[in-house]
Structure of RING-CH-type domain-containing protein:
Amino acid sequence: MILTTCAACAKSIDHDAPAHCVNCQTRYCSDRCERYDRRRGGHGKICGAIASGGGAEQHHANQKYDEAVADAVEICAYDTEGQTCFICMDGDAEEGLVRGCACRGAAGFVHVSCLARQAQVLVAEAEERDLDDDAFNARWRRWEKCGLCEQKYHGVVRCALGWACWKTYVGRPEEDWARRMAMSVVGNGLYHEGHYADALVVQEAELSMLRRLDDTDFVNILAVQNNLAGTYQYLGQSEQALQLKRDVYSGYVKLKGEESRNTMVAANNYANGLLVLRRFEEAKALLRKILPVARRVLGESDTLKLTMRKIYAMVLHKDDDATLDDLREAVNTLEELERTARRVLGDVHPITEGMEDELQDAQDALYARGLP
């Protein structure tokens, strides 16, 4: 997570809390905590290292990046043994290799640091050339998406890239667009690796920042609220999550229309919230409204469309009042989705594995009715 608490007592502090170490900018909730940490809490032993590392925020980001890369390399070690980074072409560098996208075979093996440098260079060139929004965003997405298979990174690799992005831009002014977007990238990385409590800290700080800066683009607010809602759900706050998801979906419909990808993402999240609370009829009604739009607008192998259809199948087979036709439709849909996910994303992608698990659950529900 980012630094939002007092370094001495861990109390939450405002972004502009005045108490801080003048040397390394470590922040405190009060002058009393600053004095205590300096005299008796051990801060004096690490102050110099923090200051030389760019200050408290930068030093913390660097540490979290190093930890995340080490975790990613360790988890990917078996799959990457004997492979070569597709960017620097070095397989013997001190930093280990990772792969966390949809590449297969000998493709996609890479150093996290190489991915970070590549994304940083692309974004810097876009800034220098003052590219339009579409070209700019395409380059920025390299912080989250593989340049070979064009699929988003997942798991530990996405988390490590999130910290790489944050440590790259954290030193910029708070109102700088790249720093603001980097906060979203690191929050998403934490979320997708299952660090929900840490993701919540980042997302709440991001929302507070946007409101503090009086961001006039309400779409930015909706995007952060959409992420927050997902985190609330995984932290067990399902009712609060559903209310926020409903508001976000409604907001996107008004601002962007039903065919916007942002709107469809929000609708998908709203449907998932209804599913979690077992409000099946409402979920069916929503999905039957948005699925025709998704079929018209999205490609057959688009991951959003795959996930949306998966949720619809889940709504069908998890309902205690499901008919045999509902169960058969759920199984047939999930069989098709599992094949598509395997073809597009590979066998070990989380979406593919999720399809396999859900297909097994749907088949079990059908077999429980005595059907072969």
Notes: The chain has a mean pLDDT of 91. Residues 1-52 form one domain.
